[in-house]
Design a protein that fits this description.
This protein is an alpha+beta fold. 39% of the residues lie in helices and 12% in strands. The strands form 3 sheets. Strands 1-6 form a two-stranded antiparallel ribbon. The chain has a two-stranded antiparallel ribbon with strand order 2-3. The longest helix is centred in the last third of the chain and has 13 residues. It is elongated, with a radius of gyration of 17 Å.
Length: 162
């Protein structure tokens, strides 16, 4: 069993639910870690980066800045934005953005996902908060692994993998 101690004051409630590991693990009551859907995790990470003024709404300008910075056109951004604005109020909520993003964890086992993320963290890949351009020109998350490393590494508690 590999036991990784994650220490931080940051504990996003949307990122994961876990049962704390005791100093002497009890085999009858092993620690558990449940990855919530990627959509739930990005709601507090990717949407926060895209929402430059942090008003919980993604304006056309904020979204456009992401798409154009990733190599898309303003016309492409405008078309994508219209498809995101489901209630046609002129703004995209973090929920509308969340629901528009593909779930890259679909079809991946939880154990493989956690092991892969921990391997990346141990290899020295960044666990810094995503910043700047986090969407690609198609309006999807540009670097999924970076967002997921951040969420996992900055959650308090222990991560236990078999």
């Amino acid at each position: 069993m590999n036991l990784i101690k994650m220490t931080s004051n940051f504990a996003p409630p949307f990122a994961m639910q876990f049962q704390a590991t005791m100093a002497q693990p009890d085999p009858a009551n092993p620690p558990s870690l449940r990855a919530l859907s990627f959509r739930e995790m990005i709601n507090g990470t990717v949407a926060d980066v895209v929402d430059a003024n942090h008003d919980m709404l993604i304006s056309k300008e904020e979204y456009g800045a992401q798409i154009v910075a990733a190599g898309g056109t303003q016309a492409q951004s405008d078309a994508l934005y219209q498809t995101l604005d489901l209630n046609r109020d002129g703004q995209v909520s973090s929920f509308e953005l969340r629901d528009s993003l593909k779930d890259p964890t679909a079809g991946t086992s939880h154990a493989a996902l956690v092991q892969g993320l921990l391997d990346q963290i141990h290899a020295g890949l960044s666990t810094a908060r995503p910043a700047g351009t986090v969407l690609d020109a198609q309006g999807q998350v540009a670097d999924v692994a970076a967002v997921m490393r951040y969420v996992y590494a900055h959650s308090s508690g222990n991560v236990d993998i078999a």
